[in-house]
């Protein structure tokens, strides 16, 4: 479904990602881990079509189609969605009106009652009140609420591939539980998840039985393994794992 070959991304005269190879099939869960500055977020933004990272080397194919010519919104229409590490505030854009338009334009849902019913069901599950939905996007929202709003959009759209860039960053315990529940729900429904994190707390709530874990270092995937690798990172830390695999 998603195939990345020999990906290289430059910024400021140097490589952030180099010779990176990665693939994700339908309904798979991939966990990308690594210390700060190792290139994880750059990978997420490049896959999603962020304009700062659209001049890359190598190939990114989604459903056997090269997507280098597709902008971020076009990739979303094709079924590839990204949740940001730091979701921005957007003034003048009402949350509920935005969600309604998303369902109309991207998911093809028709009929006011049907749209409102769908939004109401998911917003209740994610703990959003009508008062909060009346705000502008991310206006006055906590870190956890912003991340939950990202998952709310994913729940409504159910993309084929969902890339989550550190959804556990800056969230409280209650939000962490809700976020992990939604990730599990989407994965069980068939969404391919690419989950980027460097913490173990979120992974404690995620079903890693069939997951593939990839460790980053200096813009490359240096080793991969099954779900137990994430637990090893939590116990030993990145440096020791790198030493054991000869990845230093």
What can you tell me about this protein's structure?
The protein is an alpha/beta fold. The chain has helices at residues 40-48, 72-78, 95-105, 112-125, 130-133, 143-157, 173-188, 228-236, 238-245, and strands at residues 2-11, 14-24, 29-33, 57-62, 65-66, 80-83, 90-94, 136-137, 161-165, 192-196, 212-217, 220-226. The strands form three sheets. It has a six-stranded mixed β-sheet with strand order 6-9-10-3-11-12, sandwiched between helices. Strand 11 and strand 12 form a beta hairpin. Helix 6 packs parallel to helix 7 and helix 8 (228-236) packs across helix 9. The relative contact order is 0.18.
Summarize, please.
The protein is α/β, with parallel strands linked by helices and 248 residues long.
Q: How many structural domains does the protein architecture include? A: 1
Structural class: alpha/beta
Q: Give the spatial strand order of the biggest sheet.
A: 6-9-10-3-11-12
Strand content: 25-35%
* CATH topology description: Rossmann fold
Identify the CATH homologous superfamily: P-loop containing nucleotide triphosphate hydrolases
- The number of distinct helices, counting runs of at least 4 residues, comes to 9
Mean pLDDT, all residues? 89
Q: Give the tally of β-strands.
A: 12
Between the first and last Cα atoms, what is the distance in angstroms?
31 Å
Shape label: globular
Instruction: Report Rg.
Output: 18 Å
Which CATH class is shown?
A: Alpha Beta
